[in-house]
Every structure is written in C-alpha cells, then in structure tokens.
Amino acid sequence: MHFDIILPLVIYLIFVFALSIYAYVKRKKVNQFTDYFIGNRTMGGFLLAMTLAATYISASSFIGGPGAAYKYGLGWVLLSMIQVPTVLLSLGILGKKFAILARKYNAITLSDMLYAHYKSRMIVWFASITLVVAFIGAMTVQFVGGARLLESSVGIPYDVGLLIFGIGTVIYTAFGGFRASILNDAFQGLVMIIGAILLLTAIIYAGGGITTIIDRLTAIDPALLTPQGPNNFMDFPFMTSFWVLVCFGVVGLPHTAVRCMAYKDSKAVHQGIIIGTIVVTVIMLTMHLSGALGRVIVSDLTIPDQVVPTLIIKVLPPLAAGIFLAAPLAAIMSTINAQLLQVSSVIIKDLFLSIKPNTNYSDKTLTRISVTITFIFGGLLILAAWNPPDMIIWLNLLAFGGLEAVFLWPLVLGLYWSKANATGALCSMFAGAISYTLLAAYNIKLLSFHPIVPSLIIGLVVFIIANPIGCMYSKTGKKYALDSTQN
User: What is the CATH number of the domain that holds 95?
Assistant: First the structure.
C-alpha cells in the first residue's frame, strides 16, 4: 500500500469534510429545507459554472472516457469533444426561464417544475420513479469508479476501497447538503483542471514527446489515429448517437437542470456559460488525450478503465500522484453528491409529502428525514457496486439515456410551448421510457443508431400527436385527461 500517495488524499478529504461542516453550520441560520436542496438560490457565476461542470464531469470523464480512448485511440478524443457545448446548452435552453419559473412557483425539485406547468400528479409520480431507478445505475457507476481508482493506484482491495470511498462520500453529502455540494464543486473543479493538465504533461514527457508517441501508436495499430478507430467502431451513426446522448440530450438530465434553479441573477448565467465551457473543454481534452497517448506507456491492460490510475503511478512521483488522485475522486464525488441530493429531494418532497399533503412538518424535521434517506440510499448503492463491470462508461451512458428519453421533451416543450399539456407530456414520457428500455434491453439499433436517437424521436412525435387530445378534453371541461389525481 502506497502511504506516500494516501497522505495527500487524506488531506484532501479532510478539506472536503470541513466544507461540509461549514455548510451545515451555515444552514442553521436560514430556511433549512430550501437551503439543503438548492442553497436558497444564491449561486454566483463562478460557482454556477463549477457546479455544472463538476456535476457533469464524472467517473466516465476521468475513468471510463480515458479508458475508451485507450482502447479506440484518438478518434475517441475527437468524439469526446462533442461534449464541449453542454454548459452552453443547459444554461442557454433552460437558464433564465427555468430560474424565473422556479422562483415564481417556489420550486425545489424538477418535479415541482413539471407540476407547475402540467398540473398532473401522475406526471410527478412517473418522473420521480424514473429518476430514482435511473440514478441507481448512474450512481452505481460512480461508486465503482471511486473504488477502482483506489484499488489500481493505492493498492487498496476493491471492496475495502468501495466502503471507504462510499461511506465517506455519503456522509459528507448527507450532512452538507446543496451548499456543501456547490462549495466542494468549486474546489473540486479547480483540482480537476490542475490534475488533468499535470497528468497529460507527465505522459507526454514520459513518452518522449508527441512525435515519438504518435509513431509508437502507429506501430501498435494505425487505426488508433483515425477518426473511426479500430474496425471502424466510431462510424457516422455512432457519432450521431453520441452527440445526442452526451451533448443535446444533457438538457434533459435532472441533476443538471436543477442547477439552473439555484443561481442568483442573469449575470451569473452569462459568467457560468463562459467559465463552464472553458472548464469542460480543458478537462475533456486533457483526460481523453491522456488515455489515448497513455497506451504507449501501458500497453497491456485488460481492463481499459484502469488506464488513468495506472498512468498516475507510472508517470508521477508519489506525492504528485497523491495530489492528482484527488482530481478523479473530486469528479466522482461531485457527481454522486448532486445525484444523491436529487434522489433525496424526489423521495421526500415529490413522493413522501404528496402522500400526506396536509401534514405539516418543520424544516428541521424534513431535513433530518432527507439526511436519513441519503444514508439509506447510499448504503444500497454501495451494495449495488459490489460486483462491477469491466467498462463503466456503457452503464453510465445507459442510465443517462433513460433519463433523457423521459425528461427532455416535457422540460423543453413545457418551457417553450405554451399549449403543451399533461396528456402530451405523459404520453411522451411513457413512449420514451418504453421504447428506450426495449431497444436497450434487446440491443436493437435502428439504422445502427444508439437507442436514445429513435427514443427521442418517438417521444417527440407522440408528444405532438397526443397534445391535441388533451386540448380537446380541456375544451370540454376536462382540463387534463390523464390527471386523475389533480389537486
């Protein structure tokens, strides 16, 4: 076990917990429930940019993505840059309008926003259940990434690393809440940028320079230098699918969208777009290049996801390796705390409180219940991550796709189409969820596209077709045909 590597990690984790304690103390002075989930809507531009970037950049960006670049070459690096506009799209499409409506309706969760427009409890329930189920897969990936990182770089057995990483992350998320999340995201974002640049520089130096590395990659397999990669793996349908899945579709990710409800003013949005885009660009480029170029340094890996932890040990001195390890840990922890808080808010506010709407709970009581739910759910996720897959990126993309297929059109059309109603939205959500599940489960690729592409097309078409039916019922006095539990 590498104790000289562990020491910087321990210092880093102590700092993370210190920020959580600060957020916990700060929350005592304000509306605890609102502050726990959205930080009382006080984020400035820098914090908004860093929390969006850190939330989106996860184990897939620091572990799975470089692993895929290691396997498929520079073509995957090019493919990864499709993700550069994600912050621009999220804040540009949702941004100001989302924040204005969130304040108007006093919305805390994504389901609050859906109910404010569609007035349908059925939509809220379906959205909430879908979110919880999809996040089980998405967060399991993050726990696997954290444990695998400790296993490969520090020498801690996978199960022990999973317990250390998982329990630590759940504790700091449960007690710190949203304010701790965004403060840690800002700190972790800076760590990610510094670490990613440091690793790429060390790899280029250890490999003898770019020219030498490219020559050696050519000797290994010339296809590693082509846009399509070995065996033309990244063809046009694959690239198109990837663009939809990790760029345009990101607008429909709940843990990304909820960030658009918590910033302070329009100035914060403009700053957030610029800073966030720069952060995502730097990290995506450096990390995926590290994976692709690192193949000349470690060429015998059977599990591609181990490339970054292995490179850290090979090209960096122990102290620097320990400092850098904080970067992927930061990416993973920031994503987990965002998703855990989202699940907790959905369970407590959209499910629990909707069952007993007339029961009055104090902010303190609701916050305590939320903390308990976060602990329980975190424990279940640790169990789910006990037997990991070889490449976590596919599981992560699968969960992302499910969320996008359900949420994208109800969110976007609910904001920009005044006639969008509950009938169209609910039918679209069902159609997106069912089509995506069937296509993914049976590995059906229509015209070679990833299931997310036909699923989003089906969801949009169904929304447009079903919406007039809701309008007809509305005119006959039945405002929302599919809302049997409307308040």
Answer: 1.20.1730.10
